[in-house]
Specification:
binds adenosine-5'-triphosphate; Rossmann fold; OB fold (Dihydrolipoamide Acetyltransferase, E2P); six-stranded mixed sheet; five-stranded antiparallel sheet
């Protein structure tokens, strides 16, 4: 259950260009499930590959279990990595696929059976050991790949979008399985995804990356409720947080906090909204509207409601946001701030 640390970890692929990863300082907690979350190209995979030993850092240090590992090979680092494309050996049975790393590591043969059985029972694939990969579903193959990764009992797991090849339904159940599995083995795990739902659902903590920089590291609740900057504020949450410029500040509020005035008691800010479109999503409604009048006249905002049955396009309604639901960001730095005085509308 080793702790992974990085100090000022940087990767520049081409000299003179912006780094793929820049000055990342990170310390996992023991046994934690840490998620790297960010859009495509934000540096998640590069960061993970440096920790794994598959990519040489341009600068900075990596420690695993307190030991500097920059000079160690992937195998010597005691980590196991599962990639998005977790190729299994098609001609080998599930058993032999899982046993493969043991052979490569020259673990005595008499121990293979016991270890393969342990790993496969943890993942609930004990009955599939004699099958070939082509005789398995996508989810089962996924589990074989995980079993193959854990059979060596690594001290750290690195998972790079391991669920992205699965369809939506299977993804949800595989996610749950991974969470249960993590609880059972308790191995420190770093998980890369660009899917915020996955990150929020699975992560003990989430590290949000943008253009190779760490923007925030916190629990799912911290990054959602108190985003460090406008990037984190809009990257997490769907639809994204509404942001309106107001002098030196940017005012933010989440769609679920923009409520019809009868629901927003003592609103700190009120809007007269002209509804453009309402979208019915089953459990909720999304309402797209334009502010009419006041300081924010003409701005587009989004509201998320349990019911929007009483709102019709082209009609005007009063909405509000409570004080506790407002976020403020500095207009220049776009970082979270708390203004002392703010002149409203
Ligand atoms: P995705 O979600 O699309 O996998 P990511 O967040 O994992 O993206 P990386 O794959 O780490 O992002 O890429 C970060 C940046 O580094 C990108 O701009 C990418 O083009 C660049 N990059 C990655 N690998 C290399 C490489 N081998 N050579 C040059 N540039 C690279």
């Amino acid at each position: 259950m080793a702790v992974v640390e990085t100090r000022k970890l940087t990767k520049v692929f081409k000299e003179g260009e912006l780094g793929a990863v820049n000055d990342v300082n990170l310390e996992t907690r023991e046994g934690e499930f840490l998620v790297f979350l960010g859009p495509s190209g934000s540096g998640k995979t590069t960061l993970l590959r440096m920790i794994a030993g598959l990519e040489i850092p341009t600068a900075g240090e990596i420690r695993i279990g307190g030991q500097v590992v920059n000079h160690l090979t992937p195998r010597e680092r005691g980590i196991a990595m599962v990639f998005q494309s977790y190729a299994l050996y098609p001609h080998l049975s599930v058993y032999n696929n899982i046993a493969f790393p043991l052979k490569a590591q020259k673990v005595p043969k008499q121990l293979h059976k016991q270890k393969v059985e342990w790993a496969s029972s943890l993942l609930g694939i004990g009955a599939l050991l004699q099958r070939k990969p082509r005789e398995l579903s996508g989810g089962e193959r996924q589990r074989v790949a995980l079993a193959r990764a854990i059979v060596r009992e690594p001290s750290v797991f690195l998972l790079d979008e391991p669920l992205s090849n699965l369809d939506a339904k299977l993804r949800a159940s595989a996610r749950e399985e991974l969470e249960l599995f993590h609880k059972r083995v308790g191995t420190t795990t770093i998980y890369v995804t660009h899917d915020q739902i996955e990150a929020m659902a699975m992560g003990d903590r989430v590290m949000v990356l943008h253009k190779g920089y760490m923007r925030q590291l916190g629990t799912p609740r911290q990054v959602y409720d108190t985003p460090a900057d406008t990037f984190v504020a809009t990257f997490l949450g769907s639809p994204p947080m509404n942001l309106l410029e107001n002098g030196d500040f940017i005012v933010g509020f989440r769609p679920e906090h923009l409520l019809p005035s009868e629901l927003a008691s003592n609103p700190a800010i009120t809007f007269r909204l002209k509804v453009k479109v309402t979208e019915y999503l089953g459990a909720e409604w999304i309402l797209y509207a334009t502010v009419t009048g006041g300081k924010f006249d003409g701005k587009e905002v989004i509201s998320r409601l349990a019911s929007a049955a009483s709102f019709a396009p082209d009609q005007v309604y009063d909405f509000g946001v409570r004080d506790a639901d407002l976020h403020f960001f500095d207009r220049n730095s776009e970082k979270r701030t708390q203004p002392k005085v703010l002149a409203w509308q």
